[in-house]
């Protein structure tokens, strides 16, 4: 592929970047002199390159989808977008293969009882049956007996519709989304401390820092392309601190790797703050000018000297002192974290403890100095901004705030009395399904049978529903348990926006028409709304119409999208919100004027008290089970477990354990928790704590890590405690078999993705020290 040489000149004159108007950071945030996406052409006759972004993680790498003369996606090219600079990870390289995959659903599936087999039906029959079941359940048991669960891999236009559809068409309070399993602990901490829910700095600021701290994030595997920023900072001489129970690929390169015991993060960070205070390394001027609650936080930190925290965390006390000095003494320091410190019953406190450290040292709101969360799902940021979260309305408004409710009711054209109150979280909804308080459910872009903790409880909850419909483009494990499955489009068959981990809104473009019989999620929700009698509120012919209403609904809020248009996104490559007007350049870096989004403009520091994980250790369960992702797969694996190259790279889960337990690579190891047991091949490595077991979570039962995890929740964010539960390991006779992904009736499992699943050994690629042995 080659670029049209005239395009660069067009770009430079078409989108000037005036430094007198652009806020600091904007020049680094996007490449104003780059070649615009829509000026590329292909060398092959009849081939088109469609600029878009990857459908997977929150980095949102730019890519081109290759489209043949017949209008079908058949390949991918990296794109020189300033997020990824021509880089794609294994998932991004293979993502296009799902678009025309033989497992695609192309007709609605239906059955009136779970005792029956699915059969293909017309759209009218599937829609009519769904609407009749909604009406029957709500007529008999009330509106709140029906729920809706959305997803954070949907475009923001669709997440906006999920929240509106639940409250206006279904008239239920019960709506939430699978981002509840992702970033809500960080969201809760950010709102408490800063009054805004997003990262404070763009990725490009990492290149400017003198000290980078990464907590609970396996960047090299979960966000591979983001490592370019880590290596760029290192090339400039930045120091690197990694907090993780495992010696991940990035941790192996760190100046300090703190292999703390899972579930002890807030004790560690509060002790680091203790050392910062004791050694006079706080920025007292910054604290006096910009923070409240400092004296209370300081008093609590006094109770966490290094000796106490070291005993809690299972690390040398000297490491705590080293981290404190390295981070506080750096002229510019940044902290980024992810699920490793967020997936806890104290997830909000863990995030707050990092914020307390950044604030105490004055490392906020400057180029190369700040704080951020690395988003897991592609729209993990945007997916929680505009109303599909149980307690939020569009623009991040609170559903508990009377003025916020009035504003949205006016935009939606409903009476305030018609807007339901706040609902419950995703896991809580499953418990309500178990109790038959919620009797009907629609799921969109989620797979709880793999992604939620404590599978037995999840299966019981879903089985207790009288009616369940699921939207998907593959038959997921959850969809296979439903009454109706609606076949919907992939990301390449529709257009819309996502907000990445920087809160940069980017535009995805449609590359091909969907297969015959497939509809967009937008069309299905609008058609259901019409049949439920709310069609006048859902007159949206396409994503652009939804986005225009979303922009209006967000205007004047903290999460202001009003100044963002499709045209501006095409021209600029992305705009960070808040962006209140169409001539506003966006806000890539927060707090540069020293003010937060609280009315007083201050950082509201919060006291943090460490408490043990919810699943107690005992003689029967003396070790910690922790879970996470691997580079070849994504979330529940419904997409990636069907792509041959990714299955070949990582065909099955494993149990990562320390050599001190006496296992050899590939030997069966039974992992036992209070929820059950499963047998995995051992991956023996010195890169994990002896008291910890790691299992990746992308597979269903009987190889599902989340059949073993605990469904304890953070009391504020309601995120499950995936990252720590008590366990033991035992020798076993036979490794549990990896099941094939479900397929529609009349289809057989795609052979290319089945061959590698029978390999009983762990991945050949080294995951850490001591993993090269395969015998």
TrEMBL record:
GO terms for molecular function: 4 iron, 4 sulfur cluster binding; metal ion binding; molybdopterin cofactor binding; NADH dehydrogenase activity. PANTHER family: NADH-QUINONE OXIDOREDUCTASE SUBUNIT G, RESPIRATORY NITRATE REDUCTASE. Residues 47-103 form the 4Fe-4S Mo/W bis-MGD-type domain. The keyword Methyltransferase does not apply. Keywords: 4Fe-4S, Iron, Iron-sulfur, Metal-binding. It comes from Streptomyces violaceoruber. Residues 1-25, 738-775 are annotated as: Disordered. One of its GO terms (cellular component) is membrane. This is Nitrite reductase. It comes from the Bacteria. Pfam families: Molybdop_Fe4S4, Molybdopterin, Molydop_binding. SMART domains: Molybdop_Fe4S4 (SM00926). GO terms for biological process: respiratory electron transport chain.
